[in-house]
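Lecture 7 notes: from sequence to structure.
We start with the chain below.
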Amino acid sequence: MAPNYTKTAFLTAFLSLPLAASAPLLAQENQPREAVINVSGEGESALAPDMAVVNLSVVKQAKTAREALDENNKAMNEVLAALKKSGIADRDLQTSGFSIQPQYNYPQPVDNQPQPPQLIGYQTSNSVTVRVRDLSKLGEIIDQSVTLGINQGGDIQFTNDKPEAALEAARKNAVANAIKKAKTLSEAAGVKVGRIVEISENVVRPMPQPVYRATMMKEASDAAAVPVQGGENSYNVTVSVTFAIEQ
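Predicted structure tokens for the same chain:
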């Protein structure tokens, strides 16, 4: 019986296919990597703030928790009513903290023996975060709030309701800065910058805003409206760009 050469030839060809198919992959791996330049670019854009976020608190102390809470509620309700009357919308008012805490007196030790703490009253604290969209009213709002019972807080963050335009300008500045850096590096190395291979943006983080801080006491109600200055907000963007080097 003659050998089955057809079957043998088919099996040989089939088994050799994976080796032949892997040849282009091996050739690609052996090719030299593309020469590139990696740079980072920083861009900044300034924008005047159009909104302020203020934290205001009423803190009251009394012999009982009920008395402390009643006093706090009365003061905070007056503050909220005044804020709304001055044009602050409900959506721009948010309770940001509330607590009732017992207050203790810690006597001196007697005959080197510690004495139990003595309950002397309760303290209530109610905080509200206010978004002020008309910055011309900011000082007046702070002053009036102190008059009506605000006695703690005063942290102000100047921000922008819609910073997209400033961020877009910062991105453009960041890319331009990266291109400039790449050209400087390529000229120093005696090569030519080619196409952009890859570009990515890092997390956008506005720089710290100008902040006015004060512990507002009752005596401040006799003074003129609190002077505040908004300054400018700076938005920073960083990008990473990879350029090919032309051969």
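Points to note: Helices lie at 5-30, 65-85, 138-148, 164-189. The domain at 49-106+117-161+209-231 is CATH 3.30.70.2970 (Alpha-Beta Plaits).
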